[in-house]
């Protein structure tokens, strides 16, 4: 039976034009329901003592983020004729990250998007940053850090568990775009590339949000994308941070910025209809990424996408069932938010290296820490830390794995020494800062009063 032979399930008068999860809607009822879903998520902004702050809309130019920008526009002003006179978002900016340095096919997209935004979405201030800018000092915490990491052991390449690095002054004058290309060219596995590019973009969005005084970042992940991420991230070993990685609102990862996913209830099919009905599909740009035109088995994420999309075609409640599970996810009560992964910025579970040794069948003999073999007694780090005139902490050799979550440790196996050297300075900075803190803590631990002692 054709869709147009049915009447709308909501108004019961108009002829239906769309079929969503076995329900028929006319165009205006579909729009009303779609906008209503967005509104109900925005109402979460008013939950608790949350301030109604400025919002950064992350916009890739894909269907979901374009829909999100258009939806947000309507919640920024009060329409006197409308019944519900609430302005849910006081101020918002649109931020696009231009990836054309890595993907030739995306050239010119950013310029086109800039033009469209300035012309048709003038309510928003618009920012476009090139991905390679992440190598600049602007994206470090101190705003001036320009050192890089250098592999000293190559442990990962030898199939061992540690990867020792030293932090050295960067004396590269190479253009940032070349550094970005060198970084990604040195990684072979698509999954490792996909995760890395995602981490770089996240770092940029959080930094830009802080710079512009935004207290929220809106990500345009659709229900379909959320379902794919949930399965893919679980298989990649991100179970610990999953509630933060994909939850509707993550207030825990960053003290000053809350990450929200207001499109999480919309199927990509619904987003397609909304964009079409509202004539905003002309702004969409078919972005290329590492798995475009690649076979399904090129990465976990790509494989999961194929899997979910094909089941959804037969069983239209697949995505919504997975998404309902996401709303039930809670971060562990014992999660330590002070230690974060230098790569993905998410909280770090303690003792991963030990755990990995337990579950992996490998001969780990001889992989003891160099500090145990030839470590310096003074600062308890390995290899010539005190023999140079440099500040000790800069020459200290640290195991990179200690500052990375499980998923990022797995990806580290695909990094060679060129990759490590080409990682952006903000990662080196995070490792240096956190290792200094932990060494300091180590030195004074005997003088600290442990909270647990009181209870015994
Ligand atoms: Zn209707
Ligand atoms: Zn990580």
UniProtKB/TrEMBL annotation:
Its main location: cytoplasm. It comes from the Eukaryota. Keywords: Cytoplasm, tRNA processing. GO terms for biological process: protein urmylation; tRNA wobble position uridine thiolation. One of its GO terms (cellular component) is cytosol. It holds the Pfam family CTU2. It is found in: Cytoplasm. GO terms for molecular function: nucleotidyltransferase activity; sulfurtransferase activity; tRNA binding. Pathway: tRNA modification; 5-methoxycarbonylmethyl-2-thiouridine-tRNA biosynthesis. InterPro entries: CTU2, Rossmann-like_a/b/a_fold. Plays a central role in 2-thiolation of mcm(5)S(2)U at tRNA wobble positions of tRNA(Lys), tRNA(Glu) and tRNA(Gln). May act by forming a heterodimer with NCS6 that ligates sulfur from thiocarboxylated URM1 onto the uridine of tRNAs at wobble position. Prior mcm(5) tRNA modification by the elongator complex is required for 2-thiolation. May also be involved in protein urmylation. Belongs to the CTU2/NCS2 family. This is Cytoplasmic tRNA 2-thiolation protein 2. It comes from Mucor saturninus.
């Amino acid at each position: 039976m054709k869709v147009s032979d049915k009447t709308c399930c909501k108004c019961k008068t108009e002829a239906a034009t769309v079929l969503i999860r076995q329900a028929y809607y006319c165009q205006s009822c579909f729009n009303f329901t779609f906008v209503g879903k967005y509104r109900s998520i925005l109402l979460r902004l008013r939950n608790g003592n949350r301030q109604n702050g400025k919002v950064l809309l992350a916009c890739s130019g894909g269907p979901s983020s374009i829909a999100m920008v258009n939806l947000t526009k309507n919640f920024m002003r009060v329409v006197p004729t409308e019944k519900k006179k609430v302005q849910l978002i006081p101020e918002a900016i649109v931020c696009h990250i231009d990836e054309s340095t890595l993907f030739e096919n995306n050239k010119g997209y950013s310029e086109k998007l800039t033009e469209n935004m300035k012309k048709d979405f003038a309510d928003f201030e618009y920012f476009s940053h090139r991905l390679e800018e992440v190598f600049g000092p602007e994206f470090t915490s101190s705003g001036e850090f320009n050192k890089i990491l250098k592999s000293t052991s190559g442990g990962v390449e030898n199939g061992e568990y540690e990867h020792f690095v030293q932090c050295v002054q960067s004396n590269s004058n190479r253009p940032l775009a070349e550094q970005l290309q060198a970084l990604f060219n040195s990684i072979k596995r698509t999954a490792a590339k996909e995760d890395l590019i995602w981490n770089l973009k996240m770092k940029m969005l959080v930094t830009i949000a802080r710079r512009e005084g935004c207290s929220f970042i809106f990500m345009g992940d659709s229900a379909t994308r959320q379902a794919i991420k949930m399965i893919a991230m679980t298989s990649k070993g991100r179970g610990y941070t999953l509630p933060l990685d994909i939850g509707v609102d993550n207030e825990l990862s960053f003290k000053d910025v809350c990450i929200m996913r207001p499109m999480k209830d919309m199927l990509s099919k619904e987003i397609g209809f909304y964009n079409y009905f509202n004539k905003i599909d002309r702004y969409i740009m078919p972005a290329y990424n590492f798995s475009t035109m690649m076979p399904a088995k090129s990465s976990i994420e790509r494989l999961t996408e194929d899997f979910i999309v094909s089941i959804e075609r037969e069983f239209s409640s697949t995505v919504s069932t997975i998404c309902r599970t996401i709303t039930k996810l809670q971060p562990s009560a014992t999660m330590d938010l002070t230690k974060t992964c230098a790569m993905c910025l998410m909280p770090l579970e303690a003792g991963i290296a030990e755990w990995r040794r337990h579950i992996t069948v490998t001969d780990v003999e001889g992989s003891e820490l160099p500090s145990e073999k030839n470590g310096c007694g003074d600062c308890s780090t390995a290899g010539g830390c005190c023999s140079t005139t440099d500040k000790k902490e800069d020459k200290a050799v640290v195991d990179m794995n200690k500052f990375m979550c499980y998923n990022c440790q797995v990806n580290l196996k695909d990094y060679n020494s060129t990759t490590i050297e080409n990682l952006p300075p903000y990662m080196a900075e995070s490792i240096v800062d956190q290792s200094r803190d932990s060494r300091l803590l180590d030195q004074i631990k005997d003088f600290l009063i442990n909270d647990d002692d009181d209870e015994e």
